[in-house]
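User: Continuing from earlier, I have the next pair ready.

Assistant: Great, send them over.

User: Here they are, in order.

Assistant: Folding the first of the pair now:
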Amino acid sequence: MPDLTALYDLIPRLLPFQCLEARFMQQALVALLLLAPMTAAMGVQVVNFRMAFFADAISHSAFAGVAVGLLFGIDPRFSMPALGLGMGLGIIAVQRRSGLSADTVIGVFFSAMIAFGLAVVSRDRSLARDLQRFLYGDILTISQPEILWLAGLFVVLLAYQAWGYNRMLAIGISPSLAQAHRVRVAGYQYSYAALLAVVTIFAVWAVGVLLVSALLIVPAAAARNLTRSAGGMFWWALVVGTTSAVAGLLVSAQDWARTATGATVILFTCAWFVASLGVALLRKEQAL
């Protein structure tokens, strides 16, 4: 396993905050610096594809994933992504073959996963205590193996975005038009759903089931207010997501704050959105 000690030791030198002298804070910062750009990049396409409900459904499948893992003695770190991945691909497959609207298919899967998770948890009250950390998230407990998994996912996502961003943008505008230009719409839809499912499950560990949708959507929504171009929206989303993650981690660790890290990160993204809304309104007035 690669040793990240040198990277951790570099953090207090670059960011001389007392809270970053602790190793668990250094690991949390590295994890957020990997996770925040991924959720921001995927969030741009979530907004363009109108898939906010999809991400919400995947995040709630974490309940069922943890329940299945604990029930059958499987590590939830494996059962959660596996179930989320299966659910994401299942939604796309049923949507493409049934003729039902995306919202309807997602709603059916969403309801089934929530009901299954609650049914399993209701049989054993001890499971409910284990589920609470997934409900609220806890990036401060992330381990080095999980950071390495995040790094691997980061590389895969970077290559995917570099290769397919423009094609995904064309599919978001019009799948029929994209297909006419020989874009493999089905392949991109399946691969995007799979990647989004895995990124969403990792994000659940950071901010919890209740807030994971905000981590995907709010940076992209703020970016849309700040720029009019598709490329600008992508880069602004990265700026909003990454700065919010770092600021949220640092502020939540202060003695005067002592807030949940995930919730604090989301509050900073919302502050970005409010500021971006002001920029958008000002631009609109100038255009009149």
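And the other member of the pair:
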Amino acid sequence: MTSVSETAAQAAPPGRLPRLRFDLRRAGQTALPWLLPGLLLLVWELLGRTGHLTAALLPAPSEVLTAGVTLIGTGELLTHLWVSFTRAISGLAVGGSLAFLLGLANGLSRLSERLTDTSIQMIRNIPALSLIPLVILWFGIEEGAKLFLVSLAVFFPIYVNTFHGIRTVDPQLVEMGKSYGMNRWDLFARVVLPGALPSIFVGLRYALGLMWLTLIVAETIAAQSGLGYLAMHAREFMLTDVVVLAILIYALLGKLADSIARLLERKTLRWHAAFRSE
């Protein structure tokens, strides 16, 4: 009897089968990173169903999923999710923009570096979370407090990596650009900034992780909405499944943000040898 795959291979025009194998390989490579999380969820579910993990201690993934579906049905989860997303993006936009511009200025100008870098490095060594009591005194528990903390958290990774990227551009490329008669703007736009982009993207990815970490803490301490508030509110009523749900959503949001940054990195750095094979 002829198998389905053999029939398909015979019916396919020349060159079709290699393409099918290539797609299957790509699909396997895409699924491979999710193998370990899937196994962990499976073990977690088995431990919950066999009674080795109680619902009060750590509810099974199926119970967490049920809680999520219930909260989506009431609209509560999407409301808190949108509030947290808005806070995170606003903080990233404010803090990331300032850090990028200051990193460029200090990377390109020795005078600007001498004027501001020492102060920035002193502030960088102050843990952002230690400022929470002071920030609450300044802004109360309104949106300004969360925006300030998230902006501060994302500022330093982007600043340091932008500064480092500008300063470590290959000087031979700069000299080559000058020998081709490039003016300052062309030299910056076509040589310096592209050369600094790999380091800038590293800073962005690191900042995205800190963004969610800081937002979690800010929302659990001083907020009336958001995923952190949802988790703390659920804790008061011993709703462990909702607490775990909020934590898992934070993890998924962090992974999603990192994946988007890596996709943008690959699209932007196609010319770079290190990113051609990805």
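Worth noting for the second one:
The chain has 13 helices and no strands. Residues 61-269 form a domain with the MetI-like fold fold (CATH 1.10.3720.10).
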